[in-house]
Amino acid sequence: MGAGGERDGSSVPDDVWEQFLRDSVDGVPDAPKEPSARARSVTGRPPEQPAPAHGWRAYTPPPRRRGKGWYVAGFLVAVALLVVAFDPWRMIGTSGDGTPAGPPLAQESERPTEAPPVEPALRPTLGEPFRGSPAARWANGAAGITVPAARATGWMSEAQVAQALRRSRDFLVASSLDPAVWRGERPARATALLNPHQRDVQDYLKTSFEAPSEENDPLLLFSRFDPARARVAGDVVKTRGRISYGQGERGALQVTTDVTYVYPVTRGTAGGDEIARTIVRREIVLNWDDPSKIITEPGTVSLVSYKTHMTNGGCDDHTGYFAPEFDSDRPAEGATEGGTVDPYDRARPMDELTGAADGGCGTASRT
Description:
single chain, 19% helix, disordered N terminus, alpha/beta, 7 helices
């Protein structure tokens, strides 16, 4: 779907799509003039999350949840020493050329029951930026985001649901996997997919890019690096996650996305071959609204809530960019206020992760 609502080769039948366009433009007299995300409580959750989501921007009354966890990269020194002592050639868990042992993981269809096993503490390189990380066996880019089979839900037919699921993944790609956005550009393709009539979200977007702060932080939705400080090494970002859906408020198709992104980065203009990894897990809930009940624009989606858990992206630095640390930048010792968290543990609900480091920066057990 283009910004103006034109067709883009979708598989939806012409009569279904034309009816959708007519309904989207015409609306109904009693539809709300400006749908507010505050009015959209999370409903139709996947089975593993029966309770209402209360994210930092879940638009619920106080007490406010920040809905984000900030973690610095802390390595388990004892594990590293054991690896050096017993594996001086760094061959454990890899083939002779350093590639990970074992086949790529199958797509994630439901929440896992445990964290991935600990990998040997191998140092990443420019040629193998995911070396020593569970993400080495993850899929690249959008291929790591599982899209479920479509079925008629709410006001949408099976064909419309299938299209909405693809476009929900398009939003994730445009917000977190677009190389131009990694380089610090504004995510124009992603923001064009958001309902322009959702005034509170539009205000948030404008403020977050012009004056980023704790309350208005673009990193909650978008992955951006300051090119003077860090850049993604190569063109591969590893992902693992899934999309689920159900019927939301007012018959909307409600789509829940839960995806972890692993960004290998090098220093920006300073150059060098040292690799660090920034790991971001986002849970974003979107509504594809019934145009007869909510004013929207064709091909756009309403934002319900979002939560972010970040490792090695900066400790409460509200600049609008990730600020990863490199090993050579870190002090030899340093305590953190939060607990230790495994950023690859997708078995833990986001509510646990985003609350674990409130009041300070936690330590990641691995990157």
